[in-house]
Design a protein that fits this description.
four-stranded antiparallel sheet; mainly beta
Amino acid sequence: MFGGGGATAFGNVPNTGFGTGMPLSTNTMNSTPNTNPNKDFEVVNPPDDSISCLAFSPPTTPNVFLVAGSWDNNVRCWEVERTTGKTVAKSMQSMQGPILDVCWIDDGTKIFMASCDKTVKLWDLASNQTMQVAQHDAPIKSCHWVKAPNYSCVMTSSWDKTIKFWDTRSPDPMLVIQTPERCYCVDVDYPMAVVGTASRNIIIYQLENTPREYRQLESPLKFQHRAVAIFRDKKNTPTGFALGSVEGRVAIQYVNAINPKDNFTFKCHRSNVVNNGYQDIFAVNDIKFHPVHGTLATVGSDGRYSFWDKDARTKLKTSEAMEQSITCCAFNSDGQIFAYAVSYDWSKGSEFNSPQKKNGIFLHPCFEDLKPKNK
């Protein structure tokens, strides 16, 4: 069971030989069809409220850990046994408001937690202690660790229309950048950062040397942004991004497209059946790119996850629908495990929230599913 500050400290977790490259085996556990129709591995002791973010530990950790932030003000951490799919609850930390984002430091020893309480805290896993490292004037939407040759910091974005860069040893930000509107979705893959704000603004930032604005783009999507994820080219250089909206559509956008036709949009998370000329359309809640194959996953308010090959412009797989929305997702560092969170995303308002429906986090063995199709 989870505990507070007295929970298991990470410094005492034994090395059980993870990071060996062994994939998850096929899941054979019995579950009721409506709560786990895809027969994926279920994480023990999920959060009590809507789940906002997931993040796997970096490849520097010998074991595989998964953290999740929730609207119950808590960040939980589990150890994942790669060969069996079994999860073990390790520890939990609390903040004074709902958690909107989490990220790991590159050496896997600490976790940043961004909250609606307008602060970011740093969770030291060895000591199981936290300390405040960032502050905004409104809820903080994202936190990302930036490791550059000449500096390292945590980059935070907020609904106060600012992005801030923090040296964790100082109470004052290294740099503050104003944004045109409230920050709604952010991704960072050094040396690139992409920020989508209210009013459908897209700003690309260059993080080399001193972070600065590189370009503002006109959004290819007509509705509010919900998710963004940076992708790399065949030389492993960040080169563009996927942008998802509440209208069940994703845009693939290159920063410097050689051919304008390389940029395109596609429909997703929509019902197949059209009733009286109408189609059910669902929000794209999260997007993640596979760390090995470069293909991508989208999750939506329809309770499904889908895998896509953007280069071939084809769908690779769509899951069975869960009982609730899928709010966020993550790949582990070697791309063997796909984690996704099932909880209410409030897209239909409070009247459709059902406390009887259980929140859950599931693990899907995904390496083969996301391989590009042979051309």
